[in-house]
Each structure stands twice: as C-alpha cells, then as structure tokens.
Amino acid sequence: MKYKLLAASILATLSTSATSATYQLSELGTLEDAKYSYVSDVSESGHIIGFANGLYNLPIDTSYIDFGESVVESAYDSEEAAYELSDKEITFTLDDIENNDAVSTNPDAHSFMVSFLSSSSLGISTNFEYQKLSSLIGVVFSDEQVTEQPLFDIASVDYDGLTRSTTNIFNAVSEDGVMVGWGSAPYDKVSFTPDDEDDAETWFTHEFIERGIVISSNGVQVPLEPEFNEYGGTSRANDIIKTNSGYTVVGNASIDIPLEREEDIEDNCDNEDEPTSVCINLLNSNISRGLFNKRAVKWELDESLNITSFEELGLALAPDEDETEDDAFTSTALAINENGVIVGSSNTRYYKNDDTIITMPVYFKDGAVTDFIDQEDDWISGSAVAINDNDVITGNAVKFIEGTRRSKFFYHDIETGNTVFPTDYFSSSSSYGNDINNQGYIVGEGEVGVSDNTRRKEAFIYKIGEDTITNLNDLLPCYDTDGETDYGYTMVEATSINENNEIFGTATKTVEKRDTLGGIETDVNGEIEYESVAIAVKLTPIANGEVENCAAPEAEEYERSSASFPWYTLLLLPLVGLRRVFRF
After folding, report:
1. Contact, 294 vs 252, CB < 8 A?
2. Left, alpha or beta for 309 (phi > 0: left; psi -120 to 50: alpha)?
3. What pLDDT, in 10s, does the model give residues 473-531?
4. Rounded CA gap, 299 and 286, in Å?
5. Which of 318, 399, 470, 498 gives the lowest tally of CB atoms within 10 Å of its CB?
C-alpha cells in the first residue's frame, strides 16, 4: 500500500517540478545467471554500473573434502533435522554429493553446500582449508542488457568458468564510461604440509586481500597497485572523474605496517602451521583496524590510463610516536567533485578522550583534512559519501538514540560551514544520504517502521532547505496498469540522482521463486512458489504528473505504525550493509 496522502501534503510545500511530479519506474535488468541486481553509480552521460548478487550454479569443488569429517556430518545432521521440522524428506545424502555429483543436479544438495561453505557459525567461512565463494559481481547496464564485468577473477583450473572466489566492489563510472572499483585476488587451491604433519593438505590462498582497479569502457584493466605492497598491500578505488588531461581516481592505499603489527606477523606467519597468505588474511580480519596503515589517496591518470601521479591525502589526526608503533590508522576518499574537493572518512580523536580513536566524515581540500561533524552533539562515527559541484556534502553520522546506535543523514556546506541533519522518517529511524546533485536534491534510504525488532528501509528524496524527506514510494502509482492490482514495486534504496532529477536505485518485486541452480521452486503440492527480489531501477520524472491518493488517513497511519517487515528484505540488508562497510 502506498502512502500518497502524506506525500501530497509534503509536496505541496515544494516549488520544483521534479519533486512535485510522479515518477515512472523502469527496470534496468537483471543478469540472467543471478537473482538480484543493484545500481552503484550513473554518469550524467548515461553510463550505469552496479552489482548482481545471488548467482545461480555457484561452482562447488568437492574433490578435496573429507565427507567423514565431524563438521561436515554435523552440518548434514542439522540440515536433515530442519527438513523434518518442515515435514519434508531430505532429498540427498553426503554420499550423493561425494560420489554422484548431486551438487550439479540436486538443488537441495547444491544449496546445502553453498550454505556450508559460507557458514560463519561453523567457522568454515574463515577456514582456508575450504573453498571460498562469492556471489557478488560487478555488472554494466546498457540498452536493457546486463553484462558481467569481472574485476580480478580468472578462469578456474578445477571447473568451467570463473573461480567465483573474489570480492567484487564496483563503485563509480566517469562521463566517458571509464569505471573503478576494487576486489580481492582469486583463490588458488594449493597443497601444503604443516610442520607437524606427514601428509599434505589442501589450502586456499591468494596473492592480495584487496586492490583497486580502473577499467576502460572497452574492458582494458589497470590495477592500482599500492606503493607499499608487502604481503600484497591494499588499495581501493572509490570514485573517478574525467579531467582535461585524463582522469582523477580517489580511494585509499596501504602506506606501511605498524611495528607491533610487524611483530605479530613475525610471531605468527612463519609458513609452518598454515600458508603465510592465510595467516595474513586472518590477522588482518582479527586485529582492530587491520594490519596496514591506510591513507586516502588520489591517482592522476592520462588518457591511456597510465598513472602519472600519486598523492596521499592525510589523516584528521596526528598520531604520536607510540601510537604509530602500536596501531594502524586509516582514512579513505569516497567521492570527488569537479572542483577537486574530495570527501570520505578518517580516524580522528574522540573529544572526550584523546586515547579513543573514532572514524568520522571528513573532506580533503587544499592539503588539509577537515573533520566537520560536531562530536559534542554526541556523534561518534560516520562517513561523507558524495559531494556536488557547489561543495555541498552528504553522508551519514552515528549517535546513540533510545540506547541504540542509529545513523542519520546530513548535508554540509563547505562555504558556510553549516551542517544540517534533516528530519527523516521518525526519531529513531536510521537514514543514509547516498548522492546529491547540483540542484540540492539528496537521495538515500531510511527505516520506515519496526516489527519484531527488525527494521524496514524505503528510499527517499530530500530538497535542501525543506523540513523533511519524501518517501519515493509516495511518488509512484498506486496500482498496476489494470487499475486494480496494487503497484508491484517498492523502492528500498536510492543510490544516484542526476541533473535531470532521474533517480537510480533498488526496488523489490514479486517473482517466481528460484533455487540455487536456477530452477523454479514448487511447494509440497506442486504449486509454484513466489518470492520478492531486488532489482535495479530508474525513476524518471513525469512532467505535470499528480501525486495519487492511495490510502485513507486511517489506513495510512496503521501501515506506518505497524510497519510489517517482509521476510525478503533480510536478503537485501546484507548487501546494503556490506557495500557501506566496503566503501569506508
């Protein structure tokens, strides 16, 4: 149900036709081999990039697995018990997987193995004696087609296709279609004999944890190797703009390893108990703020994508000598505008205690790093994620509200030094500003309701100077084309807005449910099952459109207060969260 009555009162106060019009929603497409699609960036000239997630037919290598291991048998016993609770009979055995290629023919067996290999509760996801899988890939949207854009993945030597073992974060695209992102190296299956063992074991290792990459419009790839590349180093590319001489790319890169971290490596990573690269991965993930000192950086590239200069952008604090030996510090650049002003986040000191290090939104300008959120208002973390050409920034900051950490979107005007946290959906709603155009429109998403301690997000648009946000679902039709069926889409995330006030983001819709092999699922009675999935969409303003009144006030208030949480949004939240974590 749409909430058009409230929208009408909000929109009556707005003077611009872009917001007072309704919007036409069009799908950008979904990769044939994936369940979900998302937008990450759009250029003014129309280049669109994003992600696909929920890949079908993820390749499972069973050749090295001992199916008699207790952890495997325990996982199978739990799966069998879950089937019994659902009054179903399990359709495969471990022997079927090991000897009868059940993962290629039985969707239940395939789903079990995907779940097992990604299990954190069993410790498998961080156990490098098991295959690593990733279902998140970069894609390019064009002419109603969706094409995969591999970052660092390569063809597997163990099965057909790519290894599907790499992190793939596809972040930004320039006006002429040059793209940037970052990812991990593909995993190799290697033989390793620990010092206290006689027999070789199978381990999965890779060359580096993360590396930025630039990809030309015709697919030429240029990795951004960090200048400090011991143990692979790290780098990320988060944004790109076209310049008169080529391109500017911003992100972050490793600059060194603190002395204490070096000692941790020397003490633990001796290539005796496990391969060195495995030890590096585990240390990096288990130590607070990771192994490496990382700084926000800027790369200049020429027209042929040759790197012509590299610049560190600094931190929002000056660590003392003891701190630099003991701990790692990080800043990152997330976006750059046409004026060369860069925004992102940086470690800084907590105002109540200099020994406490937090991460706050910053901008990088004229050689300085400016931390601009007032900590005395109880803000304790955050990030600046977008900046328009008027030097107005948007992002989010975090504080405790009603005893829980909540994010609130903001905008900050560099010229005036003024920071505003607009009124969002409700007082304890978390909200995120994702993009801002030169007309002062901000798009993002926020929590619209609570049910069973779970929060549902919906997309919004906000005009600087207005008092509150507008739910983008209020600007969509009430009904489908038949005039009776409820409109089939819900906007859950707005990622990008251009100067035509076209909005790009993610919506949900109901489709036939598919299993992990891509087949249509049916219930015990043979009836087709349905599910809601995330799809990448574009919203186009309709000139002279009218906001529709879909619900009576009583119904609208009930919907907003009850805010039932559809189960499928659990599938969406991990990607949204991961993308924010990966960008920062």
Report:
1. yes
2. beta
3. 999 998 888 888 889 999 999 999 999 999 999 999 999 999 999 999 998 788 999 99
4. 30
5. 318
